[in-house]
Amino acid sequence: MASGSGITVVVRVRPLNEMENSRGDSADGVRCMGDRVVLAGQRQLTFDAAFGGPDQAQVFERTEMRALLDASLQGFAATVFAYGQTGSGKTYTMSGPEYGTELDASGAITSASEGIIPRAVRHLFAMLDSYTASRSGVSYAISASYLEIYNEQINDLLNTSSTGLPMRWHAAQGFFVEGLVVVDCETVDELMLVFQEGTKNRKVGSHLLNKDSSRSHSIMQVQVTSRELVALDDPAAGLAGAPGNDHTVETHGRLSFVDLAGSERLDQSGSIGRGARETAHINSSLLVLGKVISALSAAGESGRVGHVPYRDSKLTKLLADSLGGSSLAMMIGCVSPSSAALDESHNTLQYLSAAKRIQNRPVVQMSQASSMAASLKSLRDEVQGLRMQNMALHQQLSSISASGLLQGHGAMSGRSTPQQPFGAGSAQAGMQRTQSVPEHRYEEARQQREQVAAEHVAAELAHLRRQNAHMQMANNLLQRSYNEVKRENDALHDKLERLERVFVDKDHDDVL
Ligand SMILES: Nc1ncnc2c1ncn2[C@@H]1O[C@H](COP(=O)(O)OP(=O)(O)OP(=O)(O)O)[C@@H](O)[C@H]1O
Ligand SMILES: [Mg+2]
């Protein structure tokens, strides 16, 4: 997944709604035929999947949802977002019908009508349980946050008094929102509660096109942290029982569920006053989103990335990683089937076609130390794999020698490769100088605090220096071991090849 990966784009066509039915609209405006979408009187467009109707399960099952959840457990960031005009079915697809209002006889939310988010929550925990059971030494931690962008302002949906939150930029993390409540969730019910609480707090309003119209863009983010203790024990490479042989590889997967507010024509929605102001904000941020998609799509075609206006809206800043960044992404375009909404549906499908050309570059999110420990582990595993292969090759060769077939042929003069004891390698301490204790003596309390902090930093640096030196040493040892074993492996393969040639020649002579 490290190289380019296109965005998965699927389309969902909802059934005609009450208003469209009462107007007598035809449902022939947009139709699904397999993975193709047919616009009345226009060309067909092909997507990764296309769905018609109210069936919520098929949207989850027949898209890449499971693969995205799996990727998050492996440390990738993955984003699912719903796009389309107002009333087209985005919230229905992501959450379910007016989430929480459709209850069965026992008062529970009917599971058949649940959207992608609650289904993903359940599947995530089910996958997590089976992963934990099958991979010893790996543990997972889940936490979640939920925000909305309302009138270009960021509000915390898990703490309604927290509004107008600032957005910052970090070299490694990109754009992020400061001060959001992040809830640790140990069970599926706890994560479900986060989803329900945030969804309940989101701004909703009524207009002629949708009585439960989302007036904000919402992003529910689930952090999936995995921790694995990696012991780099490899006696043959000189790595056995040394202190500091254990390293924790920590990956930071992330799932973002984005339910956009829909574009809206005021002449059709009839929004006025506050509603009209909300509409202006929604439309202008969607306009920037459209420009970002167009710029990235053009880059996907030409191979040259021009200016991408991520910074022109809060929404596009927060989606930067999902569009042209290091996330995996799936976009679900929602449209009405009505012939009266053909223009809007056509616009949505054009954006979706452009989004299909966007290339992301998904990478596992982990710290430098974790990444080094992970590559040391894979190098160690590779060395051990080669050693096993060499043992098998030795056995194969000695059984051939024992069979006496080689008498008279000089092809098998064995070359032994004794294990070399390895030196300690060049342990490099790549860390910077420690922090000195402040020279000026102000109030005693402050000085003490600073001293404690300085000692803490010094101890931390010393620890990192030791860890770094150990990893460098382990890397050198494993690298040497790898070269040694690989040379032996190549030599054994050569011998076998020569031997095969000898047999072929001998058979040939016998025939003649
Ligand atoms: N696939 C579907 N099957 C049945 N009903 C649907 C479907 N999609 C949407 N609906 C219904 O259509 C109405 C509008 O849907 P929804 O609120 O999800 O639209 P939206 O795209 O989120 O709009 P907005 O941008 O205004 O928030 C709701 O009453 C919803 O239950
Ligand atoms: Mg909505």
From TrEMBL:
SUPFAM superfamilies tied to this protein: P-loop containing nucleoside triphosphate hydrolases
Q: Tell me the Gene Ontology biological-process terms attached to this UniProt entry.
A: microtubule-based movement; mitotic spindle organization; spindle elongation
Residues that bind ATP, according to the entry?
84-91
Question: Which CDD domains has this protein been placed in?
Answer: KISc
Checking InterPro entries in the record gives: Kinesin-like_fam, Kinesin_motor_CS, Kinesin_motor_dom, Kinesin_motor_dom_sf, P-loop_NTPase
**Stated family:** Belongs to the TRAFAC class myosin-kinesin ATPase superfamily. Kinesin family.
The name of this protein is Kinesin-like protein
